[in-house]
Amino acid sequence: MTENELKPNIFNVGAKHFDRRIFDDLIPLPEGTTYNAYLVIGSEKTVLIDTVDGSKFYELMTNLKKIKFKTIDYIVSNHSEQDHSESIIELIKLYPKAKVVTNAKGKEHLMFHLQIPEEKFIVKNDGETLSLGDKTLQFIEAPWVHWPETMFTLAVEDKILFSCDLFGTHLAQSETFVTEKAKTYESAKRYYAEIMMPFRKLIQKHIVKLEDYDFDMIAPSHGPIHKDPNFIISAYKDWISDDVKNEVVIPYVSMHHSVKEMVEYLTNALIDRGIIVRPFNLTVTDLGDLAIALVDAATIIIGSPTVLTGAHPSAAYAAFIANAIKPKAKYASIVGSYGWKGQMKEQLVGMLPRLNKIELLEPVIVRGKVTDEGKKLLDKLAEDIYQKHKELGIVS
Ligand code: FEO
């Protein structure tokens, strides 16, 4: 067996992108990423499961050339996003007889995004199989992790689940398999927070569905491969559960120290009550670190000064991101200040419509510098949060 061989005749031939530092021009990648693609060589047919980002096509080809096989008969597309599908364009030129195997939605996406002609496709529905001779692939529909067409592929006899983005990590390392569980856990949580969290409820269903399938390895399309599926599935079960933790996340920005002073006062008032607080000064915050903190927190407080009668753009950005990634927090509030007047509070609250089950606790908005009167209001907010966390049974 070579280092990149998962099981006999199943290889990771994907690419490592150690120095990529941003995804979608939005998501920071402090540890790079990988685009895993898996060559499965059966006694009669050979399949490539997913491909790589177009910028790394040469690396896919280099890796394929190291392995002895006749031709690629099928290219399975679990997910049509370009970081996994873009190289299909070149592959079907090199292997003109290869068929692209995906579901109906995947076919539609690939035809639009990559202009792949219709006759190239074989469509598989949920539960259907593809025989490679001595190996069988089974397709498991898993929509919305994180696009509508996403699916998993199971190597039935070899018991490998190819889960594409789900259970993945943006973590480039030279080793094929998970080596450091703590590091992989943190990276997987970041990935979940940034990409999968809006689909938490659907993931709950997918994980239940997976209980009907037999596998002892999970091979995602990003990051190292899991020889211990329970490690990553258990982590996901915790993140996707409806349970929140005794934590308050405070993304904030401050122009003339007033909001900073309020946040520091509130932070200490919460710590005094035994609550874990994670303040994030948005001028120096990595978006992924904020997203990770939002996975478990029971309460979110946004801190903002007033700029041109509205929220500071950095605070508005944090509110926009929180609304988009849909954390499971139960409570929210706003703290902030204004110089003469404005609609900062109303603007920020209006930016959180997707968090419709969240309860808004009385915001604390002061004029200018926070006074003793304002501090009393912050004490009351801290006490309100404490009482709410106590009602949830999460205060130890
Ligand atoms: Fe890794 Fe949704 O692409």
What distance lies between the first and last C-alpha atoms, to the nearest angstrom? 50 Å
Work out the number of β strands: 24
Structural class: alpha/beta
The geometry reads as: elongated
Characterization of the model:
34% of the residues lie in helices and 24% in strands. The chain has twelve helices and 24 strands. α5 (181-196) packs across α9, α6 runs antiparallel to α7 (229-240) and α8 (258-272) crosses α12 (372-392). The N and C termini lie far apart (50 Å). The site of MU-OXO-diiron (FEO) has 8 residues, from α2.
What's the helix and strand layout?
Layout: E1 5-7, E2 10-12, E3 15-17, E4 22-23, E5 27-28, E6 33-35, E7 38-41, E8 46-49, H1 57-65, E9 74-76, H2 82-85, H3 88-94, E10 99-102, H4 104-113, E11 121-123, E12 129-131, E13 136-141, E14 151-155, E15 160-164, H5 181-196, H6 200-210, E16 217-220, H7 229-240, E17 245-252, H8 258-272, E18 276-281, H9 287-296, E19 297-304, E20 306-307, E21 310-311, H10 313-325, E22 331-338, H11 344-350, E23 359-360, E24 364-367, H12 372-392
Parallel strand pairs: 8-9, 9-10, 10-11, 15-16, 17-18, 17-19, 19-22, 22-23, 22-24
Antiparallel strand pairs: 1-2, 2-7, 3-6, 4-5, 7-8, 12-13, 13-14, 14-15, 20-21
The structure holds MU-OXO-diiron.
State the main characteristics.
alpha/beta, 12 helices, binds MU-OXO-diiron, six-stranded parallel beta sheet, 396 residues
Please outline what is shown here.
With 396 residues, the protein is of the alpha/beta class. Helix content is 34%, strand content 24%.
